[in-house]
TrEMBL record:
Protein name as catalogued: Nucleoside-diphosphate-sugar epimerase
Native species: Candidatus Burkholderia verschuerenii
Pfam family for this entry, one: PRISE
Biological classification of the source: Bacteria, Pseudomonadati, Pseudomonadota, Betaproteobacteria, Burkholderiales
Span of domain PRISE-like Rossmann-fold: 65-355
InterPro entries: NAD(P)-bd_dom_sf, PRISE-like_Rossmann-fold
Length: 356
């Protein structure tokens, strides 16, 4: 068979960039499953399904034959117990529908560094591994829906005989609308609000993040990593970290982002000031900005994820990732993180999401 990809979560920050990458390199027939709330990327056949419903998934994927599945979706719940039940079922529903076809060669699952840190409600409560995080450091002794998703993937791969890979990015920089975890776009909107309203561009996070060394993941690099693992024998049945390959401190990056938008960063006084607590008037302010500049989206709720940006920048510990395993297996790609931010900001301008 030709390479036939099914992307679960195809309009999200990972799925969209993966679809664009596979379409750009050619040789892939691409189908995406999403909730149908945003327009699909170019070159992809779109399928709408409720991933939490086994019957909905079975109906949507009935009689379909795919060689590669990329699972890039999750559904946020009130507690981690609920996250485990719902997100584990989503993975199981997909492979219950596709596994019996006998055509699957490889399935990739995207999780993240909460594999090492623990979930949001139990952040760093276990014995957090020494940085930089390495794949062999294993799981934390806390409930974590990432582990449930992995186990459902492993069970399906064993039952149906396909290979798998697990991908653990750090905070992802990339273009997507309506995404639950989108720091780059959130910071672009925040900087625009500061520029337009005269607010100070205040770092919302912790002293540990301001002063510590960290890294991030460009969604386009992650897309290339997913495609590499899906087609490389060296990546079969392995879990990999995936980050850009450079490191930085937020005290430098914050000034770099501020300079791009032509604003002055506020001095950092060591206090954590979450965005979610300070953005009560942002929705109305954004409507005014959108009308003034003719922006494509006036609903700020579809653009930002204050809570997720606060969670990542508010971490009380260093978060840094090792890429040796991927390098040794043959993935040698690299992405400058400052350039990743600039590329996103330029795309947001071109799409009239923020003012040019």
């Amino acid at each position: 068979m030709d390479k036939r990809a099914l992307i679960i979560g195809a309009t999200g920050i990972v799925g969209r960039n993966l679809a664009e990458h596979l379409h750009g390199i050619g040789g892939w027939d691409i189908t995406g499953v999403s909730r149908g709330r945003t327009a699909p990327p170019e070159g992809m056949t779109s399928v709408t399904a409720d991933l939490t419903s086994a019957s909905s998934v079975a109906d949507a994927l009935k009689d379909q034959r795919y060689t590669h599945v990329f699972f890039t979706a999750w559904a946020r719940q009130a507690t981690e117990r609920e996250n485990i039940a719902v997100n584990g079922a989503m993975v199981r529903n997909v492979f219950d529908a596709l596994g019996p076809s006998g055509t699957l060669q490889h399935a990739a699952l995207v999780t993240g560094l909460k594999h090492y840190l623990g979930p949001f409600e139990a952040y760093a409560q276990g014995s957090v591994p020494i940085t930089p995080f390495r794949e062999e450091q294993g799981r934390q002794p806390v409930d974590n829906f990432y582990y449930e998703q992995e186990d459902r993937l492993f069970d399906a791969a064993k039952q149906y005989g396909f290979g798998w890979s697990v991908h653990r990015p750090h905070t992802i920089i990339g273009f997507a609308l309506g995404n639950a975890m989108n720091m780059g776009q959130t910071l672009a909107v925040y900087a625009t609000l500061c520029k337009e309203t005269g607010q100070q561009f205040v770092f919302p996070g912790s002293a540990a993040q301001w002063n510590g060394v960290t890294d991030m993941t460009d969604a386009r690099l992650l897309a290339r990593h997913l495609e590499w693992a899906a087609t490389s024998p060296n990546a079969r049945d392995e879990a990999f970290n995936i980050v850009d390959g450079d490191v930085f401190r937020w005290q430098w990056m914050w000034s770099t982002i501020a300079a791009y938008f032509g604003i002055e960063p506020a001095p950092f006084d060591g206090e954590t000031r979450p965005l979610e607590n300070r953005m009560q008037h942002a929705a109305d302010e954004w409507k005014t900005i959108a009308a003034k500049h003719g922006l494509a989206e006036a609903d700020i709720g579809k653009l930002v994820s204050w809570w997720h940006t606060d969670a990542d920048l508010g971490r009380p510990m260093e978060v840094l990732t090792d890429m040796s395993k991927s390098r040794k297996a043959g993935f040698l790609d690299y992405q400058s993180t400052p350039d990743a931010f600039v590329a996103l900001f330029e795309r947001l301008k071109a799409q009239r999401i923020i003012p040019a």
